[in-house]
UniProtKB/TrEMBL annotation:
It comes from Roseburia porci. It comes from the Bacteria. This is Bacteriophage Gp15 protein.
């Protein structure tokens, strides 16, 4: 998720309290996503070489948590849409969808992905915002199909509204009232 309150996009990750410059081009992180998925599918066997992600020095990963910043950069979380139900199916396959991604970006944004350099987070934001009129959006819609039939149109719109609402954040007064309630009845 892009943080538009910041003037720049991240270009480093932190490991062990130190910042390490990373390559931010979408091609590199697309390659990482493909290789990571393949590595996980293979049962995480063998060495997973990620040196190409770094511009200069490569951090020493001493514990599993040290990898968190890589995953947060590679797969940034969006808080919307959210749902209690997810088909669990992948809807985007970088290794197979290149033609459709390329044509969608050209059609929707006039961006030739072959001739452009783009930060990974910009790429993801544009990918997430592809208009429904692109073939890539239609393909992802087909892949997301669950077979579930909903006859009540109002139920469809209630689910969409719920999925796209930002997460509710309690006010300090609400948190205090809840704490008092829990202390009294808990």
């Amino acid at each position: 998720m892009l943080d538009l309150t910041q003037k720049s996009l991240p270009d480093a990750i932190t490991v062990g309290g130190r910042d390490f410059l990373i390559n931010t081009d979408f091609r590199i992180w697309m390659k990482f996503a493909i290789e990571y998925k393949s590595w996980v599918t293979s049962g995480m066997k063998g060495v997973f070489d990620i040196r190409y992600l770094f511009k200069t020095s490569v951090p020493v990963f001493e514990k599993v948590e040290d990898y968190n910043s890589i995953f947060l950069f590679a797969f940034p979380r969006n808080v919307v849409p959210h749902s209690s139900k997810d088909s669990g199916n992948d809807v985007l396959f970088y290794e197979y969808d290149g033609d459709y991604i390329y044509s969608a970006f050209l059609q929707a944004y006039g961006i030739d992905l072959i001739d452009t350099d783009m930060h990974w987070h910009k790429f993801l934001a544009l990918m997430n915002g592809l208009p429904d009129c692109t073939r890539m959006s239609a393909i992802m819609g087909h892949r997301a199909y669950t077979g579930e039939k909903i006859k009540d149109e109002a139920a469809i719109y209630r689910r969409l509204k719920e999925a796209w609402m930002p997460p509710y954040e309690e006010t300090e007064e609400e948190k205090q009232a809840e704490d008092e309630f829990n202390a009294y009845f808990g």
